[in-house]
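In line with agreed milestones, the collection of sequences with tokenised folds has grown. One record among many is set out beneath this paragraph:
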Amino acid sequence: MSDPVCKLILVGNGSVGKSSIIARFVADGFEKQYKQTIGLDFYEKKLLLPRDKRVVLEVWDIGGQNINSKMLGKYIYGADIVFICYDVTDAKSFADVEDWLVLVQRSMGALKKQQIYAVGNKIDLVHLRAVPEQKHNEFIAKHKLAGGFLLSAHNGDNVMRTVHQIAARAVGMELSEFELQFYDAPVKATVVADSGEHRTAMADEIEAEDLKLEMKKRQKKSCHVM
């Protein structure tokens, strides 16, 4: 018995980083394929899921197709999963997500209901963020989408976790938080010049602990003074 195949399409404005997200998939082992009948590239990988489940995920690269493209609806039709992508640093790209959703829903077809997700890219650019997470969640709830994700194609944060989660859902399996954590990529911090001083609670705790140890050392030394 062959493994189930899930087709993933990414749509959204041209500047949101769809190509960068696909490049991240490729970096994580997706192999390029070509469908001659429609002259389009897609990337394929067999995902090994927990509980001995497998699924072949196809990520379709529709390139620079804009929302008015006559072919776009044909590409979307038959997809199992659709990512409506936007850039969290670009409020306009988020505002246009509404129009992309209308197109996706119109192209769905009667035979299959896709899993539609809102996906915010570039979360590593914290200092430039223009779309708060609350707005992201409100959009998902308003339109009753299957869910949503916030990720960074640049550093890989949340990408493979997202991929495995949506692939599992497509075959009727919900992964636990414990299972998902194994797909988390190490997050690379980007240092941004800032005139202000920002301290975390963790930094304060470490400093306090160091201070206690230093005090104990001094007390021990003073006890040996005659």
Remarks:
- Strands lie at 5-12, 31-35, 40-49, 53-60, 81-87, 115-121, 147-150.
- Residues 29 and 139 are 32 Å apart (CA to CA).
- The helical segments are 18-27, 72-76, 91-95, 97-107, 133-142, 159-170, 177-180, 201-223.
- The chain has a mean pLDDT of 82.
